[in-house]
Design brief:
The complex is a heterodimer of chains A (about 110) and B (about 110). By secondary structure, chain A is mainly beta. Chain A has no helices and eleven strands. The radius of gyration of chain A is 13 Å and the shape is globular. In chain A, about 35% of the residues are buried. The mean pLDDT of chain A is about 95. Chain B has no helices and eleven strands. The chains are: A mainly beta (about 110), B mainly beta (about 110). The interface between A and B is medium-sized, with 21 and 20 residues.
Amino acid sequence: IAGITQAPTSQILAAGRRMTLRCTQDMRHNAMYWYRQDLGLGLRLIHYSNTAGTTGKGEVPDGYSVSRANTDDFPLTLASAVPSQTSVYFCASSSNEGYTFGSGTRLTVV
Amino acid sequence: QKEVEQDPGPLSVPEGAIVSLNCTYSNSAFQYFMWYRQYSRKGPELLMYTYSSGNKEDGRFTAQVDKSSKYISLFIRDSQPSDSATYLCAVRGAGNMLTFGGGTRLMVKP
């Protein structure tokens, strides 16, 4: 099934730990994005990548890093998790017709 | 001021009602306007996509854009319980980056 695969689907993480959220697409889209979704704040862009080998900062990049070694994969890393990073994280890719989103990773930092 | 404002709801209507969902935006450079539907614990999925001002109809759904007043609307006719979801408006400028509203939660009661 064509689309975006995110892993894990949910995770409870101790503060201070490192965590990588995985995202893979099979649509060969050039552009990919990471959003976090919080109640009352909607979807906020963390990082994006317009093409393999390039990345850029979004609205809320602090505490997060990304890499784009190839077209299909766009992992998001939390170097040292803090409770304010508790959120639902969505990966997306885009074509001219719009964005395709994954099902999300629900992350709780305790 | 946020770039895209959307009433968070919740909006509760009886089955069969006409639903009107609205957003306002601040930047007149936005050219592409989208509505996404998000079911609970799922990623957003593209519902409607319009370019510039005017109406676009797809079955029971009509998207309307008024660029002069910077106002975006989504109308749902003959609403069904399966329409219960969060609806997010999104706008896009010259690049491929989307800016989302905070989402309106809709509940259609049988």
